[in-house]
Specification:
A five-stranded parallel beta sheet has the order 2-1-3-4-5, sandwiched between helices. Helix 4 packs antiparallel against helix 10. The longest helix has 17 residues. It is an alpha/beta fold. It contains ten helices and five strands. The protein is elongated, with a radius of gyration of 19 Å. It comes from Plantactinospora sonchi. InterPro entries: CheY-like_superfamily (IPR011006), Sig_transdc_resp-reg_C-effctor (IPR016032), Sig_transdc_resp-reg_receiver (IPR001789), WalR-like (IPR039420).
Amino acid sequence: MSLISVSVVDDDRMLLDGVAAWLESAPDLRLNCAAPTVDRLLAAERQPADVVVLDLLLADGSAPVDNVHRLVSTGRAVLVVSVVPHVVHGVDVMRAGASGYLTKDHDLPTLADAIRTVARGEIAHSPELAFAWSSDTRPDRPRLAPQERAVLVAYASGMTLTAAARKVGIQPATARRYLDRVKAKYHDVGRPTYTKLDLADRVREDGLRWSGPGGSGPDGPGSGGSGAGSPTLGGQT
C-alpha cells in the first residue's frame, strides 16, 4: 500500500485539527502540512504533498481559481472542498486544474476516497460536480452530440483512435470526423483544441464521462455520500 501525503488549506482551525486527527487513523494517508492560506502552505511545506485539500473560499479573500493555479503549477493535485456547491466556482476551479470538488457535508471516508482518486491522477466525480457541470450553460461550453462526446472521452482517456472507434462501435474514419467536429466546436466557443493533450484537458474541464453502452453518463453522481453516523468534513460550518 503506497502512502499518500496530504496537505490541507482551510482557515477553520477546528476543521484543520479534526482532519489532522482523523488522518492518523487512515493507514495510507499522511498529513504533510496544514495552513490557513495558500501562501502559508507554500512557505511551510518542505516537500509538495501528493494531494492538497483546498477550501474554496478563504478568509484572506484570495481567488479560488488563482489558488488552484498556484498549487497545480507546482505539481500538486488539488481537491477543492466547500460548504455549499457553488455552480460557477465548481466549474471554474476544475478548468483551472483541480481534480475534484466536494462539499463539506460529506463524511470523512468519502473525503478519503476522493483523495485516493485524485492521487491516482483521476477526477473525483461527485454529485456536486455533476450538478455544477449540468447547470453550466455559459456560451464557452460547446454542445456535443452523444457520439462526439463518446469518441472524445474514449480517445482522450489514452486510447488509440482505432480503439476508441471500436469502443464506440464505429469505424476509425468516422471517429476521426467526430474528433474534427469536436475540435471545431471548441474553437468556435473560444477554447482552441488541437492536440490529444488539449482534448484530455477539455474532458477534465467539462467533466465529461463515458456515456456509451454499459457506461455511466457524463453527469452521473459519484459513488460517495454521507454515511449515517459518520463524522462529516465540515461539521457545523
